[in-house]
Amino acid sequence: MYESSAAPIVALYGRLLALKLLPRTGWLQRGQAAPESVAEHTFGVASLALLVSEQIPDLDRGKLLALALVHDMAEALFGDLPIGARRYFGAEAKHEAERRAMQELLAGLPDPDCATYLALWDEYASRNSREARLIKQLDRLEMLVQALAYKRAGNQAMVEFWEDIDDGWSAEFPLVAAMAAELRAQIMTV
């Protein structure tokens, strides 16, 4: 009964293992030795999603966690494109390339699984739900938490992350804005 779906799942997971070995390029560019991997970042985003999910009303926790897990999945094929390089691609070209990578990753899965995961990724990319918008905010917050950890460990090249810490936090999620403010307070003491 399960034999027909076992092989595609194993194959997809094997491809996703690349995320464990893929360093976050922004940290490399800032001189961070042994930077976190994309998989470690994804774990951080999913952990934050779980931790805040009970505090924010009217969220679908299952969808929230699924969005956290798929949000950077395309990077298993696409790579972690540095922020500086992104401006040369344009948002639409980057989105299309990532979507093609997602389609390729998921191609071996049977429907409805393939369609479900691609729809989740599309939802995250378009930010057309509260859960998707929250994951985008947590994606950014997790980066700041990691930058603070690197700064505490002695990497002073993380200063640029703090320059805009007060910008872009959605009023839709005051808890996340409060967490960013707490990080700001901690940054001032490092």
Report what the structure shows.
The chain is an all-alpha fold. The protein has one domain (3-187): Hypothetical protein af1432, CATH 1.10.3210. Helix content is 69%, strand content 0%. The chain is built from 12 helices and no strands. Helix 5 (61-70) packs across helix 9 (113-126). The chain is globular and about 55 Å long. The termini are far apart. The relative contact order is 0.13.
- List low-confidence stretches: none
Straight-line N-to-C gap: 56 Å
**Percentage beta strand:** under 5%
CATH top level class name: Mainly Alpha
Query: In total, how many beta strands?
Result: 0
Radius of gyration: 17 Å
Write down the overall geometry: globular
* CATH homologous superfamily caption: Hypothetical protein af1432
Instruction: Give average pLDDT, whole number.
Output: 90
Largest sheet: none
Remind me, CATH topology?
Hypothetical protein af1432
Number of domains: 1
The structural class is mainly alpha
SSE succession: HHHHHHHHHHHH
Q: Provide the helix percentage.
A: 55-70%
What would you say the CATH architecture is? Answer: Orthogonal Bundle
Number of helices: 12
